[in-house]
Amino acid sequence: MASTTSPATQPTPSATDPFSLQDLHCFTETNGVITTTMFDIPGYRVTKILGAVYGLTVRSRNWAAALGMVLKSVAGGELKWFTNMLYNARNDAIGRIVAETQSRGGNAVICLRFDAGEIGGGFAQVCAYGTAAIIEKIDDGGDVHPQLISQ
C-alpha cells in the first residue's frame, strides 16, 4: 500500500534530534495544546488557571503475551511488548488530558506528571495529570513551539 504522504513533508533527522524517528510511538498529537512538566513556559504568561486535569487508562495483557514475557524474563532483557503497551497507555492518557483541557477552553497543560502501576495480576494503569491553563505569548523574539504552528 502506497503512502499518501510525500517525502517532502516527512521530517528529516538531524544530529540534534533527541530521539530517533523510529521512536515516534512516544509522540502524542496535542492539537495545539502545549504540554510541559515545568511550572511555567518561557516566553509565555499564564493568564488563567482552569484546574487540574486527569487522563487515566488501564490496559490488560493477553495470556499469550504474558507467557512470552515470563519466558523472556528468565533470559533477561527488555520486554518490548510490555514497553510498547505502556507507551500506548501513556499516549492515551496524554490525549485525554489534552481533550479535557480543550473542553475547558485551555491551550496548555503545565506541571504535567505521570503515575503508573499494576492493578491485580495483569493490568497496568497509567495516569497523566497536570494543570490546565490559558497562556499567551509575551516574548515575540523567541521560538514558536511546534505545537502552535498552524497547519
Can you offer a commentary on this structure?
- The protein is an alpha+beta fold and 151 residues long.
- The protein starts with 33 loop residues before the first strand and ends in a 14-residue tail after the last strand.
- It has a domain at 33-137: 2-Layer Sandwich (Translation Initiation Factor IF3).
- The chain has helices spanning 63-75, 80-103; strands at 34-35, 44-60, 108-119, 123-137.
- Strands 1-3-4-2 form a four-stranded mixed β-sheet.
- 25% of the residues lie in helices and 30% in strands.
- Mean pLDDT is 76; it is low at 1-26.
- It is built from two helices and four strands; from the N terminus they run ββααββ.
- The chain is elongated.
- Pfam families: YbjQ_1.
- Belongs to the UPF0145 family.
Radius of gyration: 19 Å
| Continuous helix count | 2
Structural class: alpha+beta
Distance between the termini: 26 Å
Approximate strand percentage: 25-35%
* Strand line-up in the sheet with most strands: 1-3-4-2
- The CATH homologous superfamily of the domain at 33-137 corresponds to Hypothetical protein apc22750. Chain B
Could you give a short account of the major beta sheet? 4 strands, mixed
Order of helices and strands: EEHHEE
What spatial form do the alpha-carbon principal axes imply? Answer: elongated
Mean pLDDT: 76
